[in-house]
TrEMBL record:
The keyword Hydrolase does not apply. The keyword Iron does not apply. It comes from Prochlorococcus marinus CUG1433. It comes from the Bacteria. Keywords: Membrane, Transmembrane, Transmembrane helix. It holds the Pfam family Sbt_1. This is Sodium-dependent bicarbonate transport family permease.
Length: 332
């Protein structure tokens, strides 16, 4: 694996701001981001990436590659939590296994955005329809996690915690991040179809401000991730190993699926990153509400304190190297 892409990724402004945020906690700086701002920037990033993705999908159309790729994305978000659940059951109960597995079956939009920035820095082309895969991969893992609890949990679980299919679907399909991302995708698609001048009017907001907002958001993520690090002591070596092994394992499966789909290097990396990332927002919110027996310190500390920084600092260039090695091989 080449060292240069790793250095370029580490020295990119978003990653540097993430590290600056983490270092501020380690050295006990009084740097603090007011609570509403990270939420605002999170919503902004979802809106912007969804809007731009909708525009690109309208431009590219639903080609022979789009639908198979989106279908494969949904399939991966159904399979990954099942694999994770089987591994985690060696050490944890049903509740914790399902919650952690759902987090690793879902995705991280910020990791996806970081991968896009990496591709742009390497001048590697990718298609906007991959945003559709991002939007479609968040909910299925939540559904699988909740169904695992529903069918595998002890029968003496209190009736107040019994889950109904309608509540599972509502929680997974209408949580804030999924709703905003899908809505922005539709708005971008309709704008590009019927009102192209609207794209120019939105450009200063969704285009020129995007990179700066990403840096600011990652600065806060660095602070939050570093604050979570001490809680990893409670997770134990098994879960810490899982937090690194599972993304690499998922990336390995993802790159072969990308090769089967005949994706180009840029799209393949985004697909692999989606498979290898883990949710630290939507899934924890759903699990806290519906599976209170699971320890949030497990699935939040590992995804946010370990897997997320690993992916944006080292994982993305490692996955690119994996793509460059396996994709050029003869077709499956």
């Amino acid at each position: 694996m080449e060292i240069n892409p790793i250095l370029q990724n580490v020295l990119a402004p978003p990653v540097l701001f993430f590290l600056i945020g983490a270092i501020s906690v380690l050295f006990k700086s009084d740097l603090e981001i007011p609570a509403p701002l990270p939420k605002l920037f999170s919503l902004y990033l979802l809106l912007a990436i969804g809007f731009k993705g909708g525009i690109e999908i309208q431009k590219s159309g639903f080609t022979d590659q789009v639908l198979p790729t989106l279908s494969a994305a949904i399939l991966m978000s159904l399979v990954i939590p099942l694999i994770g659940f089987l591994i985690l059951r060696f050490k944890f109960d049903v509740f914790n296994s399902a919650a952690i597995a759902a987090a690793y079956g879902s995705i991280s939009a910020v990791t996806f955005i970081s991968a896009e920035s990496f591709l742009e820095s390497q001048k590697i082309a990718f298609d906007g329809f991959m945003v559709g895969a991002l939007a479609l991969m968040e909910s299925p893992a939540i559904i699988v996690g909740l169904l695992l609890v529903k069918f595998a949990a002890p029968k003496n679980r209190p009736k107040s915690r019994k889950m109904h299919l309608s509540s599972i679907l509502h929680e997974s399909l209408l949580n804030g991040s999924v709703y905003l991302l899908l809505s922005s995708l539709i708005v971008g698609f309709l704008t590009a179809s019927s009102n192209p001048s609207g794209i120019e009017k939105m450009e200063p907001f969704t285009g020129q401000l995007f990179y700066g907002a990403e840096c600011f958001f990652l600065l806060d993520m660095g602070i939050v991730a570093a604050q979570r690090l001490p809680r990893l002591k409670n997770a134990g070596s098994f879960l810490i190993g899982f937090a690194i092994f599972m993304p690499l394992f998922n990336a390995f499966i993802g790159v072969f699926v990308a090769r089967f789909l005949a994706l180009g290097p840029g799209n393949a990396l985004l697909f692999v990153v989606l498979c290898a990332s883990a949710s630290y927002l939507a899934v924890p919110a759903a699990m806290r509400m519906t599976v209170p027996e699971a320890k949030s310190s497990y699935y939040i500390s590992t995804t946010l304190g370990l897997t997320f920084p690993f992916n944006i600092v080292l994982g993305i260039p490692i996955y690119m190297s994996l793509v460059n090695t396996i994709i050029p091989l003869s077709p499956l």
